[in-house]
Amino acid sequence: MMLGSQPRQGMNKLVAKGKSSEPGLQVISLTPAVPFAESMDKSISQFDWSTTSLGALPQWPPALRIAVDMMQHSPFPSALAWGAELTVIHNQGYRGLLSAKRQTLGCSFDALWSDEHWQVIGPCVFKALQGQASFVEDTPIRIDPGNGMGQAWYAFSYTPIRDDQGAVAGVLHTVIDTTASMETIGQWRELATTFEKQIARYMADRDHIWQLSRDAMVMLKRDMRLHAANPAWQQILGWSEDEVAGMPILELVHPADRPQIRSAVLDVLHGKGVEQIETRLRHKEGHYRWFSWSGRLEGDVLTAVGRDISQEREDAIRQSEMLLRNSQRMQAVGQLAGGMAHEMNNLLSGIGGSLELLQRRLAQGRLERVDNYVLLARDSVQRAMTLTHRLLAFSRSQPLSPDNVDINRLLEAAEPLLLQALGPEMRLQWQLDTAPWPVYLDAAQLENALINLCANSRDACRDRGQLTIRSVNQRLTGSQASDSGLPNGDYVTIHVEDNGHGMSREDVTRAFEPFFTTKPAGRGAGLGLPMVYGFVRQSGGHAWVESTLGKGTRVSMMFPRGEALPEPEQTSAALPASTARGRGERVLLIDDEANLRNLMKEALADFGFDVSDATDANSALGQYRLAGTFDLVITDIGLPGGFSGRQVAKAMRLLNPEQKILFITGFTEQPIEQQLLSQSGTALMLKPFTLESLVEQAQRMISC
């Protein structure tokens, strides 16, 4: 823009760039606003702020930038103390108050005023950091800047400066010269007050908080219709502001919470504040989320702020459910201990009484009824063995030998055993899938589970009725898998259904509890269904009971799909174990239980085996290395000294890969590797077992 040759006085102050080449003409160039860094005082913009806790200048937050800009243009000496370290940023007027020899920019505020003035300044700074502004004029401070101008008196103003989230992030320190007259002091005070109000208005800008708040914020009219909602509301609940504009807020509130909301709104309209009301609001997708609300009335508008507490409530509910499950588990443990003690006391009493009478008759030289006492004791022992096996199955601690099996072939092979368990007047009906998937499980344990279910059905039908066994392929996806607690995938389900008297809803919920039974006293120990449940869960499956009084009961067992089976091979019939006695075959017996080991050793020796025994893994390996080859090694899995029967077997097979090994165990925390059991010349027996069955198994393995 070009002006006349005779510019008005003062016009030269507007010159921005250069002069015209024509005499008498003055050129004024208007340039756009400069960036933030360039608009600052050079002492601030050229200072290396990266060495301070504020970081490099381009990284400063918006609130700090605005505060610095306003501080620079303040008509009186001002300084900002920002951040946790109260880093100092000041204008030129403030710099003139301080010693020219000191570095002031970027230092901490308490270091800047660390002399005797801090006793007056310090409490005011801490008050400002707590959000309270103050103007100190009653105790003015005397300062000597060291510039030869002498000392002057000043009063200080302290104003809290808040960040984008509304928290106090710094302090504005305003200095007023009080050496002038009282009128001058009043003018400066008015200027300082005006400046503080400008900052307060900006930092309290509702739109700024409205946009950046993480809490849901809504404005309601007196008729409880939505007037406005902030972005956090839209993000949490999925509704856009246009979708809910003018909508009655009660339409989004859960029906059960609406009376509480109506009451709270009435309180606000009568001038009472509302704090911490928890309620549910409907998400756009249909589910509800929990909020903790507070609100106040401003004119005709009710402003409410809500914090999303859905996750907190879910965590609390999950914790409560876990505590409930732990309580129920402790009740089950107590019931299990009581039932176990009752059953074992009965069995031990039968064993002890039989042995006592047997000892008395032998001492008297009377042999009548001796066989009866022995049979009674053996029957009690057999029942105790069955009880412990069922307990191991319920606790999912029994050693399993799972394999991929054809479920139809397995069920058909088990039919004679099932018919025997059902009795002569029960009808067995099969409804098997024509092409079932293979399943991965322990076939012997499945037979035991089916026998238990058949016995339960026979009792429920009072020895006369019908039992139906179905097999079906089933694929679990989505909600089905989540309801059963199983992963998505393919499963084979076996349903065992009878037409007996059924069970009540309360009894169904307790069906898998140990020692719970609906049978008359003396007809059952209450371990059949718990054993079935434990076996199915240990096999990676799921079991459940469905029943209706007067219509029957159905027990379902779901097992994971196994791998494809090879084509069956034509094999010759298995030869029964030889009934001939042993001929001095060498057996190494390893067990730390002395009484049981001696009994087993005697039984094996009576049969004709040459038996060596050991109490632990180290002595067993020592004998194995020194005594040469053994025809069979019988070892307990749980051995003392930290060296298990598994490790013994692996060490021996390093010396002799063809070594035959029979594992015996009553309980093991670590499952036996299927790869180890599937090796040729390997077998497993579960304690307790009869000595006769041990001898037969040893004879069978040696003769193969």
Explain how this protein is built.
Helices cover 40% and strands 22% of the residues. The strands form 5 sheets. A 5-stranded antiparallel β-sheet has the order 2-1-5-4-3, sandwiched between helices. A 5-stranded antiparallel β-sheet has the order 7-6-10-9-8, with helices on both faces. The protein has a 5-stranded mixed β-sheet with strand order 12-14-15-17-16. It is elongated and about 130 Å long. It contains 24 helices and 22 strands. The chain has 5 domains: 36-202, PAS domain (Beta-Lactamase), CATH 3.30.450.20; 209-308, Beta-Lactamase (2-Layer Sandwich); 318-380; 403-560, Heat Shock Protein 90; 586-703, Response regulator (Rossmann fold, 3-Layer(aba) Sandwich), CATH 3.40.50.2300. Residues 339-563 form the Histidine kinase domain. Keywords: Kinase, Phosphoprotein, Transferase. Its EC number is 2.7.13.3.
